[in-house]
Write a structure and sequence with these properties.
Oligomer: single chain
Order of helices and strands: HHH
Shape: flat
Strand content: under 5%
InterPro entries: DUF6249
Keywords: Membrane, Transmembrane, Transmembrane helix
Distance between the termini: 35 Å
Transmembrane segments: 6-23, 56-73, 85-104
Helix content: over 70%
Protein name: DUF6249 domain-containing protein
Domain DUF6249: 6-104
Length: 112
């Protein structure tokens, strides 16, 4: 599997929105400074929640299971390597997020 193409696509579609975001944020802050307003209006307080840690933990476990099942499908079936890996990663990643939603709803807290 040639990973160069995948990295090129990810970097192109990742860098362009990042540049647009940074330019927009710079212009917004510059306008606030020119008007004499406080920049603290733009700074959001980050809430360190146990739910966000749970979400990322469950998601990473789901992705790991997806990679493992994709490897098993690649080795023991006639599926193409890319199809087996990507389909299982997305399937188990999505299932992990659904499990997180169920756990969070049971706790009764706000979802992030």
């Amino acid at each position: 599997m040639d990973i160069t193409g995948v990295i090129a696509i990810i970097s192109v579609f990742g860098v362009i929105p990042l540049i647009i975001f940074l330019v927009h944020r710079h212009r917004e802050r510059k306008a606030l400074i020119e008007k004499g307003l406080d920049i603290s209006l733009l700074v959001e307080e980050k809430k360190c929640s146990t739910l966000s840690s749970l979400k990322y933990g469950v998601l990473l476990i789901g992705l790991a299971i997806g990679i493992l099942i994709g490897n098993i499908l690649d080795a023991y079936t006639g599926l193409n390597e890319e199809v087996s890996y990507f389909s299982m990663i997305f399937l188990f990643g999505g299932l992990a997020l659904l499990v997180f939603y169920g756990l969070a709803k049971r706790q009764g807290e706000n979802l992030e």
